[in-house]
Amino acid sequence: MLPNIDLTIAETVEADEDKLFEQIEQAVAAAIRIVDLKYPQECELSVLIADDDTLQSLNREWRNKDKPTNVLSFPGEDIAVGEPGGRMLGDIAISLETVNREVGLETNKFDDHLSHLIVHGFLHLFGYNHVMDEEADHMEGLERKVLAELGIADPYDDG
Questions:
Q1: How many CB atoms lie within 10 A of CB 154?
Q2: Backbone angles phi, psi at 59, to 5 degrees
Q3: C or N terminus of the chain, fewer CB within 10 Å?
Q4: pLDDT tens string 58-81
Q5: Domains in the chain, ordered, with CATH?
Q6: What is the rounded CA–CA span in Å between residue 27 and residue 59?
């Protein structure tokens, strides 16, 4: 059973809510299955789809970085890798402006990149991190497995 997903799309963003919700559900379900993430039966995940100004404001307030970013995660509880999530898994915020900029003119890659960011943000809610090289390697490996399950090419492959 998936977490209850609360999707908010900022007024400044034009997006297909049904398509986004389905994409979020697919990415979250794959991450849960592949990584074997645990959480209570009745739990919630909040996802905000916004613009660069909103993500820059959040990034400045919570990370002291005054610039927009593609994804931010705010865990509901401070848990270690392998521990189950709580009733409020946390919040994920994504800037569609940054996603569009990062994929450039390759529109067919937009959905793949967005799914990657959803998976990336969701793993952060379960204690995964990429501060140290070893942590980054582990997290990226999990992301690769989840994305492969979704039929998405390795985002870390430079070739």
A1: 14
A2: -65, -40
A3: C
A4: 999 999 999 999 999 999 999 999
A5: 4-149 (3.40.390.30)
A6: 23
